[in-house]
From TrEMBL:
SMART domains: PKS_ER
Highest classification ranks of the organism: Bacteria, Bacillati, Actinomycetota, Actinomycetes, Kitasatosporales
PROSITE patterns: QOR_ZETA_CRYSTAL
Name under which the protein is recorded: Alcohol dehydrogenase
CDD domains in the record: MDR_like_2
Amino acid sequence: MKAISYRSYGGPEVLEYGEVRDPKVGPDSVLVKVRAAAVNPVDWKCREGHLDALLEPVFPVIPGWDVAGVVERPGVAAPEFSAGDEVIGYVREDFLSRGTFAEYVAAPVRTLARKPRNLSFEEAAGLPLAGLTAYQVITKALGVKPGDVVLVHAAAGGVGSLAVQIARHLGARVIGTASEHNHDYLRELGAEPVRYGDGLVDRVRGLAPDGVDAAFDTVGGDTLKASAELLGPRGRLASITDNEVVGLGGQYCFVRPDAADLTRLSELAEQGVVTVHVDEAFPLERAADAHRRSAEGRTRGKVVVTVE
């Protein structure tokens, strides 16, 4: 099959497009014909070796954890799906090797859910990792409830935009940080936009003088410290980028595959509660350009690759 792979850590130039071995389908997996796969910051961070202490690479590595596609055939112990089913998945294993930037991927059942019928394959591919991250942080780590004031950083990005929508669905008031050209987009999602940069703390306090009930950090560093400063008396803090959050009394979160959570996200998408904005789509052979676009860090929503 055709796939993108890399034989060593490095920049986008190490990504190769060509033939690789077809995946073997384990008993608890299904073979998925890939229609689209999303790019996430973790993809190029893995490619550059930043997660080497956490995830063992088995070269050549096929990158990508997000997928939307069609079941080609189920494994012998995977009765949950049948050939022809449209699925989405956060197909992460505990090592780097068998990713989704390929014509086919063998996906464990625990990583899959049925694709939302109202989303295109490109939109659906952007839901699993970003959506699960947002859902697990908002509902579990932060325990957002009706009436909460929630601060979401990088609120126009893939994770942030979904966190805004989920928090709003739960009845929270949401303040979102973003560059000014994304403020109208945040208003459409139901958030109150705030500009990045110097004076951020004062601008947020102007909207929430008693502090925020929950803060979702997706940036780290000074942004994390500002988030801690903005918490109300019983405020909760979570970060997906900076483990210094623990020293500030918050929780560090790393998304995990969860079929039940992913099914719930699919249901929310079909109900029109959450939408996925595709910033740009690239054909599979241009995956290096897709990585470059993601690494710019100024995307609205998701960058995806498509597979013919």
